[in-house]
Amino acid sequence: VFCVQAASEAVAAAHALSLPAEAYGNDPNIEMIWAMKAYQHAEVYFNLISSVDPKFLKLTKVDDQIYTEFRKNFGDLKIDVLDPEELKSEPAKEKWRPFCMQFDGVVEDFNYGTFLRLDCTEDYTEENTIFATRIQFFAIEIARNREACNSIVYSKAKQTKESASKDGSL
């Protein structure tokens, strides 16, 4: 019974998320669904970069295009530890907007909200997380992967597994 109810709720949530934003206003239930979806995405991504060497990851079909455009537009952006002002201030939004819009129709759900880690060496925590668009997430995380910023997450996880294995914990 629980599985059927959960499946029914998941289908209803998926349908709700496919409707235009204007249909809801500020419905707290929809905001909660968005937050849960963003959290699940963050959790899956962090587990992925903890399990696979990030330099080998391909996040989209157009990673090369995203990376090239990102570095062309934001060549001096420090990506290892992000300054929220570089994403959220009015001048930053003006610079990000045309970058993001060029991926409309290229990257599915390019403007969905998602969580982004401020310090790439750390996990998602309340202090280390900012809300960003999906294309901002992809641009920054593709750059972090290619520029070896996320390698420390993988290395830490690998060391932890090796230590646990030597201790007989696994």
From TrEMBL:
User: Pfam families recorded for this chain?
Assistant: PBDC1 (PF04669)
Mind telling me which InterPro entries this protein's record contains? PBDC1-like_dom_sf (IPR023139), PBDC1_metazoa/fungi (IPR008476), Polysacc_synth_dom (IPR021148)
State the GO CC annotations.
cytoplasm
The record, for PANTHER family, names:
PROTEIN PBDC1
Protein name, UniProt field:
Polysaccharide biosynthesis domain containing 1
Q: Where is the Polysaccharide biosynthesis domain?
A: 30-154
**Chain's gene name:** PBDC1
Q: Which domain of life is it from?
A: Eukaryota
Record-annotated membrane-spanning stretches: none
- State the organism of origin: Sphenodon punctatus (Tuatara)
